[in-house]
Design brief:
400 residues; 9-stranded mixed sheet; 11 strands; 29% helix; 17% strand; globular
Length: 400
């Protein structure tokens, strides 16, 4: 009997051969013709790998070529760059996450994506600056406003809310309009203010104006707001305008009432507003809303107002109870008046809203709570999309 040979070094487990999936090529219709795209699962991914599909969207949606053709930039020289090269360079630079004109030079060697946009080359940053300088300001603003309206106009047939707010762009150079103003995150730093008008909850910007850092009040935003409404057909107007306490003044509300536009703003807690809070603190009729908040509808006419308007008082209990002994020096009459006279000495925090809406207080409170999405808009488009970049020394070149 013959024994089988003894294996001194046994073989390891056989490698499992992964069967490669057969991926069919995708077709994208670009300005340079149709191209076929295949994906290699083992290869590295480029951040602009999805750009051909976006270019196809721009072509099929008639968004890019009409935008280029309508640009009010005109050259007399035969050696002048083409408009498609200038505007296409801006588009590629923004999609690449650039925030400065000088960053465009990194794209000048790109001979693939530029052709897909119908460009012959990527221009330099100096050429891009000079191109903007040659555009008439009024014509340039009208061109951009019309282009934006073409993009969002189909959405306006549905009920929508117009949010208005101001955000701060810190500056580190000697740009025009770099003035020290309200800047909570970087006090003392010169800045620009971006007066923004947007469709609520869609994170879609309708218009934006760049102004000096000390021009952050609603009186600087209101002209742009009324100009935006005048450009829109009356049937496409929002259900109401929504803003913070800076908008709760008689000038803005009177203008909105004359135009037949409803509004929802927050009020500053002035002396008369605090007096209203004290009058309704112990009254009944408060309705529970969400997360411990309760609301009560009332009317108010401040000394600077021309008429009486509807207000909604909103409050909730502070978790940590505050009790002040009556015999101490800190026991002010106004502080004690905010405390419950019963054995439950829990204090409240208050907010007061002013509105022309004829709706339940629960609906009004929820509408204003939804306004918090404005800050999310600013955080996303400024920090993730580089909004506020391409700042030049002349404010006219970065007004939009």
């Amino acid at each position: 009997m013959v024994l089988p040979p003894k294996v001194i070094h046994p073989e390891g487990d056989k490698e499992m051969v992964q069967s490669k999936r057969k991926i069919s090529a995708l077709v994208a219709d670009t300005f340079d013709g149709k191209i076929h795209i295949e994906w290699d699962p083992q290869a590295q991914v480029t951040p602009l790998g999805q750009l051909p599909f976006f270019i196809q969207f721009l072509k099929m949606g008639h968004l890019f070529q009409p935008w280029v053709d309508e640009c009010p930039s005109h050259y007399a020289s035969n050696n002048a760059p083409k408009k498609v090269n200038i505007l296409g360079s801006f588009l590629l630079s923004i999609l690449s996450g650039h925030t400065r004109y000088a960053h465009m030079t990194s794209l000048m060697t790109d001979s693939v994506n530029a052709k897909l946009l119908g460009m012959s080359k990527v221009v330099s940053d100096d050429c891009a600056r000079r191109a903007l300088q040659k555009i008439d300001e009024d014509k340039g603003i009208r061109w951009l406003q019309d282009s934006l309206y073409y993009c969002y106009s189909p959405l306006l047939s549905q009920p929508w809310i117009l949010d208005t707010d101001v955000t701060v762009k810190p500056l580190y150079g000697k740009q025009e309009g770099a003035v020290v103003g309200y800047n909570p995150h970087k006090p003392g730093r010169p800045s620009h203010t971006y007066h923004t008008y947007m469709i609520a909850n869609l994170r879609l910007i309708l218009d934006v104006e760049v102004q000096a850092g000390n021009q952050s009040a609603s009186c600087y935003s209101a002209p742009g707001l009324w100009s935006l409404l005048e450009r829109l057909p009356k049937a496409d107007w929002p259900q109401f305008i929504r803003g913070d306490c800076d908008w709760g003044n008689d000038g803005v509300m009177t203008e909105a009432e004359q135009r037949g536009m409803d509004y929802l703003f927050k009020l500053r807690q002035s002396a008369n507003v605090k007096k209203l809070i004290l009058e309704h603190h112990c009254k009944s009729g408060w309705q529970q809303t969400v997360e411990g908040w309760e609301a009560l509808s009332s009317e108010l006419k401040l000394s600077t107002w021309k008429q009486t308007r509807r207000v909604v008082l909103v409050r909730r209990r502070i978790k940590n109870n505050v009790v002040i002994a009556p015999d101490t020096d800190k026991a002010l009459p106004q502080q004690l008046s905010l405390l419950e006279p019963a054995e439950d000495m829990a204090t409240f925090e208050y907010s007061v809203l002013v509105t022309s809406l004829d709706a339940e207080v629960i609906t009004i409170v929820q509408h204003y709570r939804d306004r918090a999405d404005c800050e999310n808009n600013f955080d996303e488009i400024k920090n993730q999309w580089g909004w506020g970049g391409f700042v030049t020394q002349k404010i006219r070149l970065c007004y939009r």
